[in-house]
Amino acid sequence: MHDRKRSGFKTRTRVDDARERLLGAAAPHGRTARVDLAQADARTLAERVTAPNPVPGYDRAAMDGWAVRAADTFGASARSPAVLRVAGEAENDDPVGPSDAVRVHTGSALPEGADAVVMIEETEQVGDELEVFDAVTERENVGDADEDVAAGQTLFEAGHRLRPSDLGLLKSVGLARVPVFEQPTVGVVPTGEELVQFDPQPGEVIETNGLTVSSLVSRWGGVATYRDVVTDDFEALRAAIQRDLTKDVVVTTGGSSVGERDLLPEVIDELGEVLVHGVALKPGHPVALGVVEETPVVSLPGYPVACIVNAVQFLRPLLKHVGGTDCPPLPTQEARLARKVSSEPGTRTFARVEVQEEEGERIALPTRTSGSGILSSVALADGWVVVPESREGIPEGEQVAVEDWEWSA
Amino acid sequence: MHDRKRSGFKTRTRVDDARERLLGAAAPHGRTARVDLAQADARTLAERVTAPNPVPGYDRAAMDGWAVRAADTFGASARSPAVLRVAGEAENDDPVGPSDAVRVHTGSALPEGADAVVMIEETEQVGDELEVFDAVTERENVGDADEDVAAGQTLFEAGHRLRPSDLGLLKSVGLARVPVFEQPTVGVVPTGEELVQFDPQPGEVIETNGLTVSSLVSRWGGVATYRDVVTDDFEALRAAIQRDLTKDVVVTTGGSSVGERDLLPEVIDELGEVLVHGVALKPGHPVALGVVEETPVVSLPGYPVACIVNAVQFLRPLLKHVGGTDCPPLPTQEARLARKVSSEPGTRTFARVEVQEEEGERIALPTRTSGSGILSSVALADGWVVVPESREGIPEGEQVAVEDWEWSA
Q1: A128: how many CB neighbours lie within 10 A of its CB?
Q2: Option in B56, B205, B408 nearest A408 (CB)
Q3: Binding-face residues of A in 320-359 toward B, CB within 8 A
Q4: In terms of CA atoms, which chain A residue is nearest residue B200?
Q5: pLDDT tens digits along A83-93
Q6: C-alpha torsion sign, points B133, B139, B141, B142
Q7: Between A67 and which of A114, A406, B327, B387 could a Cys-Cys bridge form, CB atoms 3.0 to 4.6 Å apart?
Q8: Residues near B358 by Cβ (< 8 Å), separated by ≥ 6?
Q9: For A243-286, how does the pLDDT look when each residue is reduced to its tens digit (9 = 90+)?
């Protein structure tokens, strides 16, 4: 609805430069909490974590056999076996005295008094006696008390995003809770006088961007507050941004271009600083990135596809940065491009594709690439192919990496 | 601790066959709920969803220009323009009467009375008059009321796992809630007389598998109940499984092999049926899969790495199946194998690797591949390389796909 959109941007900042400016102006929030391991999955560690205790924490038999005192076996051979007394089982906590042998299994705690394990194959039990056919040295076939993890060993650095197996490792060293960064908070403010929540009349449009962005924020580890629609009014928009300056990040949708009703860049400029307005990406160049009283403000365009493309490029890394962790690359899958994709050199282009299997081969089938208003083209796509600034399109048949932007991380 | 483990399995079922048997014996639970779109992310649709309303729901201007009655422009040309009356703006709900022209922007609702749009370039406004230099036909430059989505159009089939952009699409057609399958419930039962929750004495081990598996269940869309440790006692184990037959799935950890204290296969056999015991995979062949009173029971081995490998192979697809959706393939990244990986033909091997960047190239560095007890080898790995049954190892330098088993989906 804004006829100056296409021609209105004098310059368009490159995607990487725009992201760098945004992250450079935003500080990690640094607030921490201690959470139970059972609640810590996918959270970000706020401190380096070292092991308070070793694992397993005690010497173990490394073989099935007999725990002994090594000195009792010195000189033993097949011809002249050492003869020990069968003194019980490690599982029964039987200790090993002089000339005793106690039955152990791989992983058993080494019984008190023992300092080595004779492999079962090197022995023969005869009644209450055990013949040992080979000498063992001290610590032979014994696993150290810190074999898996040493006390004081660094397990994870600050900024590490915890995974289920990490929780097991942390528990194994005796930890019950871990220090993590709080999840970043995000105010999500949909804007546009045409937006309604339901039952649109001619000229009205149902609000969808705020809902989608709020769900993406959750997937990316943030806590979204999905605000009511704000109309295209300078004062109303200013108040809406000011209300959410208590959040770690403010995101708006709509009104980010250069038309008469695109007020967000002006509002941000009045309240703080516009870092970037207009980015060399497609679809979705009319994005504005700014900062108000140290709170980063991401003003996403209102066209649904443009909104999502920019959210992935700027909001996702911003949330990670503010939340104290690195932004992991999105997963990709290789596929053969079924039709050529066009792009302008100098512009990073995100071409939505459907991925299909054809005769055992993965094919990437471009969906509608022109227009950014068609929500179904992104909802029904499996991912997108990123055409870098250095290229002018990608020819049919090329092997491409399809990026799936909706994974949780 | 079980010396018959290595030799005890007469046959080992192939991974794919074992999975097929398990899924074949488990039915989708079929329970449904209606949830608000704001809570529906990552949930699975229980029914096909069609659009109750079209999008946008009204005719729109497809160009910046003037809404007119096409008949008023018939015969117009640059030499002999049609002259219309400037009658207002679409944004003000001004209607189009005979010989009227109302200003429209791309996306504006077509004003009442208009049936076409003249592009701005084909006009010139002179005071209150508009000269039109080219005729338009009915519906020219007009977008249909169902241009984005038609009423009745199928948006998603039952079984579709919802993503943030899907939520936007569903909202845009006027839906507020959607029918989804309930999240599958899982009883997670760690077993083993050596297990304690903290402060292990010699011979004792801190319980970690139940915690890790519970977190994985959450990542995979299930709701885990993490039970207290159950000791290696037939009656206690039987009671523990019976208690959780109200769940959609029962998972145990430990006691799944063929040693004296490996009682789970026997318990399952007494209560129901063991479908598979022993699978041709490494690490982790001593897994048991069964069904008790129509509830699938997955008995995972107690060695931490073996536990995780089997959870990913069997529990993840089972949860998806029971929850009514397909199991998406795990994301992979290509890397060059830095050292050879060994495997036995006939056995599917999961070789944990760390992924590193070296001079712009991604390198997969195998971590300890022998032994399945070292939790740190999996917690500190970035993924694993799957060596199929048909191969005997993978040589150094080969390009491999590193599977990341901890993504949420």
Answers
A1: 9
A2: B408
A3: 331-334
A4: A57
A5: 999 998 887 88
A6: positive
A7: A114
A8: none
A9: 999 999 999 999 999 888 899 999 999 999 999 999 999 999 99
Length of chain A: 409
Q: Is A218 close to B169, i.e. CB distance below 8 A?
A: no
User: Which residue, A229, A240, A234, A244, is CA-closest to A296?
Assistant: A244
Average confidence score pLDDT of chain A: 93
Nearest-CB residue to A212 (from B108, B167, B215):
B167
The distance in angstroms from the start CA to the end CA of chain B is 35
Q: Which residues pair with B366 in a beta bridge?
A: B353
- Which residues, numbered 253 to 282 in chain B, qualify as contacts with chain A under a Cβ-Cβ cut-off of 8 Å? none
Q: Between the CA of residue B184 and those of A362, B37, B221, B224, B289, what are the distances in Å?
A: 31, 19, 7, 9, 18
**Contact of B212 with B307, CB cutoff 8 Å:** yes
- Tokens 């009356």 sit at which residue? B85
Query: What is the C-alpha to C-alpha distance for residues A55 and A342, in angstroms, rounded to an integer?
Result: 57
Contacts of B209 in chain A (CB under 8 A): 168
Please tell me the distance from the alpha carbon of residue B40 to that of residue A377, in angstroms, as a whole number: 20
How confident is the model over B19-63, as pLDDT tens digits?
A: 999 999 999 999 999 999 999 999 999 999 999 999 999 999 999
Q: What is the interface pTM, i.e. ipTM, of the complex?
A: 0.91
Cα distances from A323 to residues A26, A182, B182, B183, in angstroms, run 11, 7, 31, 29
Q: Which residues pair with B346 in a beta bridge?
A: none
